[in-house]
Design brief:
By secondary structure, this protein is α+β, with helices and mostly antiparallel strands. It has 20 helices and eleven strands.
């Protein structure tokens, strides 16, 4: 029989390899082009990393776009080693996947030792993680933050100040990977307080904040203002309104992404196999309905024609009732299950950590997206796993939940893959098509995302409204994911030349809802993507109207 430690290490390695490999298969997408551009600039100017102009629709100082440095310096090192190769750069992110899997394994072993391996797979191969990796900050910040938490726990176990300082260093790196790393730092402090090590918690927080503040002072000395302070100022005002707008996306994203974890939660709550099977069928039926029904079409419309009720509302509403009722019941049962002092500390920590993740979601999310709830989903899985362990649930229940979660994650990943491939193909069709600008003219693209990344590689020029403006005879390509920015274009006389519709037979899509919207998956009942090609006519008198 294989040594248990070796078996766990093999599962950690396999999960990390699979997570990295899937990411490497996917074309550039969402905000990937932003981080790739910053990585190249960090490589070229490591002591003045924000000393360039960037942005769309308005170009500005690179310091004005929210891109903390840790991930970018790692990406910069990869750029120097392998060049501008997206696939190799994604493989370069393997250490983040490995650190994430290892940290989750450590946390699962502490909170749910009998379910350690299935809980590892339930979290790492979940629909909130697999499609979110990309060349973005979300998995790296979780990897560093969770590692910092695991190290802090080990520091108290071994009464080690060296590990305590290492936890503080890692927590500081997490904060400067993405400011949501503050939640991990707060969780470490809570753990230390609950275990009577208040001084250690304060040391971790002080070291983490000193590292973060030190970097901000460096940026301020070079750029004239701290990166953090710029974005704190941008977020000021309308906090309550923004929080209200984030409530429904929180309910729907957790509902869509938490179906598998609910199965483990139900087993922990004592549900029988028939009830768990019924819940599984509800989840499968919901996914099937999204694939078969035009989910965004109005079932009930208002007098202005806007949808008051859609099939998507009904599907995610049903899932939200099932998922959130399970979350609340698991949390209540966990709060009541305090047999020993150690049980009390572990259970209370998870409940407080969940509250911190919710607070971080509302305080730090500029807009809704599936990746914003990833931390909350991790804590919910640990909470369900711990209750299942305390109740003596057999590992096969957790294995079933992990298998179902992986299936949902792969479905969302495939939908996201089709979305990303669509942007890549559209850029090639636009650039190599029959339409060319007037002699001496420019072929522009508007905004970034995957289409913009590949369009620029095909020779198109990014359009910034406060930069060089299009002239008569130029062409402008605008994908429909960013077409809402059209009203912000200055007065120009644009003539629609062609609309390119990208179609395929896959029935669901993840874009834009997964990366910037209220739901992680929707029906794809038309073109997966459209690109409008406009010609700049003379004289530039009228604002363009969006034509579909």
């Amino acid at each position: 029989m294989m040594d248990p430690t070796r078996r766990i290490l093999l599962h950690v390695l396999a999960a990390a390899v699979l997570l990295t490999g899937l990411n490497a298969l996917k074309p550039i997408h969402a905000d990937d082009p932003v981080y790739l551009r910053y990585g190249a600039e960090f490589a070229a100017h490591p002591l003045d990393p924000y000393g360039f102009q960037f942005g769309s629709p308005l170009s500005d100082s690179a310091n004005a776009t929210l891109v903390p440095p840790v991930f970018e310096y790692w990406l910069a090192a990869g750029t120097l080693l392998v060049g501008d190769n997206p696939t190799l750069l994604k493989l370069w992110l393997f250490p983040f996947a490995l650190a994430f899997a290892a940290a989750i394994s450590c946390l699962a072993g502490r909170f749910a030792p009998t379910l350690r391996i299935p809980l590892l797979w339930l979290i790492v191969m979940s629909p909130s993680i697999v499609p979110s990796f990309n060349v973005m900050l979300d998995v790296p910040v979780l990897a560093i933050g969770m590692t910092a938490l695991a190290v802090a726990m080990l520091a108290i176990d071994r009464d080690s100040w060296i590990l305590t300082l290492l936890a503080g260093l890692l927590a500081g790196l997490a904060i400067q990977t993405k400011y949501t790393g503050l939640v991990s730092m707060a969780a470490i402090v809570v753990w230390c307080v609950l275990h009577g090590r208040v001084v250690r918690g304060l040391v971790v927080a002080a070291l983490a904040l000193a590292l973060a503040v030190g970097w901000e002072c460096f940026v301020a000395s070079v750029q004239g203002e701290s990166h953090f302070m710029i974005h704190l100022r941008i977020r000021q005002g309308h906090f309550f309104t923004r929080c209200v707008r984030l409530v429904l996306p929180l309910l729907s994203h957790v509902a869509g992404l938490g179906m598998a974890t609910v199965l483990l939660g139900m087993a922990a709550l004592g549900a029988n196999r028939r009830s768990i099977l019924f819940a599984t069928l509800i989840a499968v039926a919901s996914i099937a309905a999204l694939a078969l029904v035009p989910s965004q079409a109005p079932l009930i419309a208002g007098s202005d024609g806007k949808a008051l009720l859609t099939a998507s509302n009904l599907i995610y509403g049903l899932l939200a009732i099932v998922v959130w009722s399970a979350i609340i019941r698991v949390a209540i049962q966990m709060a009541r299950h305090n047999v020993t002092d150690e049980d009390w500390r572990l259970n209370l920590f998870l409940l407080v950590w969940m509250a911190l993740e919710l607070g971080g979601y509302f305080a730090l999310s500029p807009f809704p997206a599936a990746r914003r709830v990833a931390g909350f989903m991790i804590v919910f899985a640990l909470l369900a796993g711990r209750l299942a362990t305390l109740r003596g649930v057999a590992p096969r229940s957790a294995t079933w939940a992990a298998s179902f979660g992986a299936a949902v994650a792969l479905l969302v990943f495939v939908a996201d893959y089709f979305d990303t491939r669509c942007g890549q193909n559209a850029a090639q069709i636009v650039a190599r098509g029959p339409h060319t600008p007037a002699p001496g003219g420019t072929y522009w693209y508007f905004r970034w995302m995957g289409f913009g990344y590949y369009a620029e590689r095909e020779g198109l020029t990014p359009l910034a409204l406060n930069g060089q403006m299009p002239r008569p005879g130029d062409l402008v390509a605008i994908d429909d994911f960013t077409a809402g920015m059209l009203p912000k274009l200055p007065d120009m006389n644009l003539r629609l030349v062609e609309t390119i519709a990208m179609n395929d037979s896959f029935p669901v899509k993840a874009t834009p809802g997964y990366c910037n919207g209220r739901t992680p998956l929707e029906n794809c009942n038309g073109p997966r993507m459209r690109v409008m090609i406009y010609e700049v006519a003379a004289p530039p008198l009228a604002k363009v109207a969006l034509e579909r």
